[in-house]
Amino acid sequence: MKYLYSFKGLFSVGFSVMLFLFPACTAYSNEIELEPITVSLQPFETEGQDQTKNISILYPEESPAASFEDILEQEAGVDISKRSIFGIQSDLSIRGATAQQTNISVNGILLNDPQTAHHNLDLAIPDLAMEKMTVIRGASSQIWSQSAIGGAVDITTKRPVANEGSMFFEYGTDETQTSSLYLSLKNEASGINFSVQEATSNGWRFDTDFKEFAVSSSGLLEVGDNISSYLFAGYGEKEFGAADFYGPYNSKEWTDTLFVNWSTDIKVERFNITPKIYYRRHHDKYMLDIARPDYYLNHHRTIIKGMQVEAEADLLDFGLVTAGVDINRQSIESTNLGDDSRGRDSYSLSYRNYQNKVFGYDASIRIDDYSEYNTQILPQAGVFFKPLPWIKLRSSAAKAARPPGYTELFYDSSANKGNKNLSTEKSVSYEAGIDFILKDNEDIALSFTAFRRDCDDLIDWIKTPLSPDFYEAANIARTKTEGIEAELDAKFLKWLRIKMSYSYINSDIDQAQNYISKYALNHPDHKVFAQTDIILPFGIQNIRLLYKNKEGYSSYLLLGATLNYNLNKYSTIFITGENLTNEVYWDIRDNILPGREIFCGAKIRF
Questions:
Q1: How far apart are CA 595 and CA 606, in angstroms?
Q2: Domains of the chain
Q3: Which of 191, 207, 257, 390 could serve as 186's disulfide partner, Cβ 3.0–4.6 Å?
Q4: How do beta strands 376-388 and 176-186 pair?
């Protein structure tokens, strides 16, 4: 991890500047009047997104969560299976799908890791460089979510649109600390930003220590009012103890990720075209047993590169038509999986007509032409109806498909074995929902959704009576997944906001189950999140709880709280407590997660 330590000096300078600015801002606190604290509800109607789907748009800067993974965990239907804290390694699942069946993208570019979904969230983006996260449950007409079996998350990075900056520092239990910096400069026609983040911890038990570093920069160039060009580059490293991550071993893992994305928006009257070029390189070094370093040591290097073009035509009263092409190439060099490369050419066409405020609909079709698997045709359609201004009824259906990843095909160890004969898994999903948005003296947003997904040839890691000592990748029989999602976001009083989410998910296999499932059937059947914000003149205080139940696997209730004190409109100090009841819990069997944790820190905006 050569860059991790070479940047330490730079980061130490940044933190020293933070310590210098902190008392300077405080000194003027008596002269600067605090700005009024406002809290806006999360809208269920999302501009530019499918109005027929259950979609959330999340803004990391507005959340007290420690990482963007923890923010996603708060959403109904979304599950984060952690192996560590602060996003060191987590698996993202939506609506009970496996992590492989859940799409992750950056700036509208699908970036699922071809080696394994365990690396999908290695994004090479500091948290302060994230503008927003869009969560789509199920497939939609968006080019980055059309192939999603369970759902998709798109992360939009910050563009340098203003002269601004922010700093963050946090320190607490197990000598865990996080420091981050964001700077943005903008002139009339161009801008540039820079962000850096570092996190370290001694770990809560043996072989759970970690070091993380990420740095990014982006540039913006505007030519008149109709052309805008954006370049983003990010690099990240992780070094962490991986005790019990994949088996009963004290393991260690090193990863580094490079991501570069260029896009240009060109507008001509009612037409818009956006070409994009992207490149992602990921390297993973995995040591199975630190007591025997040479016993089992793997190196994997994957590359995703491609070109994507979207063309959009505004037909005024007749809606919006979007055509897209994504030429994607993937390759791997691995000491365990071997060397391989493959390609995917995707073509999509979508139509959305939301001009009528009472009734609207959308439809899309996507063709995925794989170099090594059969071509897949993936249609989807949805409709909404608003009988009253504050009620929306919606329904949609979609088909999705996914070929196996490299680990599923070729992995070979004493505990897990791939299967080169795997075929593409396919699904058809349906959903129906109702949204309420009440705005008067009180602001209340309420949403209910019911869904079903039928999946054929689902890929999972299983143990059978014929192979009881290891998991093997296999296409299992047809599965049926059903569930409901409920969300409440309400500001009952000027000083009180309550946010709640609940999801129930049940998966069944059509034939008798004579095996143990490692991932596909291990989603929570019940998940509840609740957060209360108390909005005081000097800051927002909140208390939150998370309950998960995986039937026959694990069940836990976590309590957390954050206290904020605004010294002035530029600086805030805070103290955060996680797992305050010191619950013993895990998301992955035998991988015990931390007990009670206390952190304190500061945030500065300028």
A1: 35
A2: 2-605 (2.40.170.20)
A3: 191
A4: unpaired
- For the chain, what percentages of helix, strand and coil (3-state, to nearest 5) are there? 10, 55, 35
Token pair belonging to 462: 């299983």
Give the model confidence (pLDDT) of 62-111 as tens digits: 777 778 899 999 999 999 999 888 889 899 999 999 999 999 999 999 99
CA distance 193 to 232: 10
Q: Write the CA distances from 47 to 50, 51, 53, 57, 421, integer angstroms.
A: 8, 9, 13, 10, 43
Asked if 32 contacts 24 with a C-beta cutoff of 8 angstroms, the reply is: no
What is the value of pTM for the model shown?
0.90
- Asked if pLDDT for residue 10 goes beyond 50, the answer is no
Number of Cβ atoms within 10 Å of the Cβ of 387: 10
Kindly report the length of the chain.
606
* Residue 317 DSSP label: G
Nearest in space to 419 (alpha carbons), one of 459, 456, 455: 459
Contact 73, 546 (CB under 8 A): yes
pLDDT score of 20: 37
Residues 64, 529: contact at Cβ < 8 Å? no
Burial 28-63 (b: 16+ CB within 10 A, else e): eeeeeeeeebebeebebebeebbbbbbbbbbebeeb
| Residue 492, Ramachandran bin (φ over 0: left; ψ between -120 and 50: alpha; else beta) | alpha
